[in-house]
Design a protein that fits this description.
The complex is a heterodimer of chains A (115) and B (112). Helix content of chain A is 0%, strand content 48%. Chain A contains no helices and 11 strands. In chain B, the strands form 2 sheets. In chain B, strands 2, 4, 5, 9, 10 and 11 form a 6-stranded mixed sheet that branches. In chain B, strands 1-3-8-7-6 form a 5-stranded antiparallel sheet, with no helix packed on it. Chain B has no helices and 11 strands. In chain B, strand 9 and strand 10 form a beta hairpin. The radius of gyration of chain B is 13 Å and the shape is globular. Classes of the chains: A mainly beta (115), B mainly beta (112). Chains A and B meet through strand 4, strand 5, strand 9 and strand 10 of A and strand 4, strand 5 and strand 10 of B.
Chain lengths: 115, 112
Amino acid sequence: GAGVSQSPRYKVAKRGQDVALRCDPISGHVSLFWYQQALGQGPEFLTYFQNEAQLDKSGLPSDRFFAERPEGSVSTLKIQRTQQEDSAVYLCASSLIQGADQPQHFGDGTRLSIL
Amino acid sequence: DQQVKQNSPSLSVQEGRISILNCDYTNSMFDYFLWYKKYPAEGPTFLISISSIKDKNEDGRFTVFLNKSAKHLSLHIVPSQPGDSAVYFCAACRTSGSRLTFGEGTQLTVNP
């Protein structure tokens, strides 16, 4: 597809369950970002990949959060032992490469609700 | 510590008039700034950006102004259209393509 694709669009899980969120970036985009957006707030940075290398994971809120991009394309954000405070929209973005006026292009997000 | 702030949660304007959305930042290391538009249940859509070496960038009805000394940027939409009604986010980063820091967003409503 032409844009960033995220699945599922909606996910409901019970507290304590593990969830996995998928992101398909724009073809050829080297950089991939994950953001978390709480209701009424702007997106907040979670982690960043350049190809398959995770170069920055300083925004991950706890060690229950794990992200990977093993082949430098599709990425998965995994949350273990989910808590109610994990309820948010999780956004994935990709850009061609760092530098040279490259904006990030976002997917429509996964809305995660923890019961 | 909110490094990017949009102090107006909402703005209402008449169709055809100018919309001005404001954004302030505190981190002097930021050198690339972007505006995104977001409709409900969709991801943010890139609108326009500006590098810190410029003070103005224009794209059709959208113009972004950057005042580095005041650490302030604004987005002007002229003329405003009802389809422009959305939440607008200001974002900043240290290098183009690096992690973005977002403001809280401003809900723009353009009335017919």
